[in-house]
Amino acid sequence: MENQAPAKKKSVFSGIQPTGVFTLGNYLGAVKNWPQLQDDYRCTYCIVDMHAITVRQDPKQLRQRSLEAYALLLACGVDPQKSNVFIQSHVKTHAELAWVLNCNTSFGQLSRMTQFKDKSQKHPEDINAGLFDYPVLMAADILAYQADLVPVGIDQKQHLELARDIAQRFNTQYGNTFTIPEPYIPQATAKIMSLQEPTKKMSKSDTNVKSFISILDEKDTVIKKFRSAVTDSEACVRYAEGKDGINNLMTIYQAVAGKSFEEIEKDFEGKGYGDFKTAVGEAVADHLAPVRDKWKALMDDKDYLKQSYTDGAQRALAISQRTIDKVYKKVGFIPLG
Ligand code: TRP
Prior knowledge:
Shape: globular
Radius of gyration: 21 Å
Number of strands: 5
Largest sheet: 3 strands, parallel
Structural class: mainly alpha
Bound molecules: tryptophan
Helix content: 40-55%
Oligomer: single chain
CATH class of the largest domain: Alpha Beta
Strand order of the largest sheet: 1-2-3
CATH superfamily of the largest domain: HUPs
């Protein structure tokens, strides 16, 4: 294979749920990296509304949030000219592949998924089959595009391992069909913690709004939330075990201001937490301001958004249909036409 044409760019797939505005945690841990991959990889990014309905959603709100999330991806720098950006329910191959994969996934393995256990504890009144099956749909998303690399937060690692297992088992059973995807987890910002309880992950469903930053929060709000962030009583800006609050703020500051921990420690030597929190709040607010402005402009241009997600869905269908055709043939379905 050595002397052939230059290798084809590798492919990247990732998805994000449209369940409310993204937090700073979603942004730094995942979405911020997505535009950076666009030049070196063939990227496909998806708003996973079909995953969202594994917990009850208000239909009107889901529609609104899916559009907002789509616009937010573009506002964060995902470029629909360079990447395929679309909404999951627009592309039928995801559900089709999920069914075939379902028939090749063991019940026992699915029962060990920690996210299923957590979510079914949180929603004991609605433990539906879709919630249990969530990781298989996620595997279908990834495998339909023959993705080499999947940027995700650390909480999705187990699901990705399942996707790899499913792909490997299918390949063994039916002959080589799927690319085995690798996780891409940016270590430094893999987990941004709550500002109020820094041992817990930052979450948009937290009832205490002071615990998370929405990436659409206005400057004053961002600064206020950082000023009330929980820290410790040492009053020394340094990264150390047990200083969860400060460690989290340092991680955030490092990501938005591009400074190393050593630089941060030096800059804030002899200064109190008040100064540090204000600096982090301002840096975050400045970093998010252009995203917010771009998002607002996009939300005012519904025609453009519609055109963009329609194109994205068409391209996504063309790619994933090739996989479905191959899979249907391998499992023994009669081709139509
Ligand atoms: N389960 C992911 C999450 O909640 C979202 C997701 C759905 C996803 N399908 C995907 C992520 C495929 C990566 C690849 O974060």
